[in-house]
Design goal:
Layout (H helix, E strand, L loop, with lengths): L5 H10 L4 H13 L17
Length: about 50
């Protein structure tokens, strides 16, 4: 989803059969698994600012 803004991400994820809440769940699981280390403490996967 590189280069897309939030509305485009929602549309694209739903085109691929994944609702946006499921996409956020996957990102939260990645964060819990440590895939965003060493910056995971500064990532909030449910906040888009």
């Amino acid at each position: 989803f590189q280069g897309l803004d939030l509305p485009e991400i929602i549309v694209e994820s739903e085109k691929r059969g994944m609702t946006f809440d499921k996409l956020l769940t996957v990102l939260m699981m990645y964060k819990e698994a440590g895939l965003f280390e060493p910056i995971s403490s500064s990532i909030d996967v449910t906040e888009f600012t």
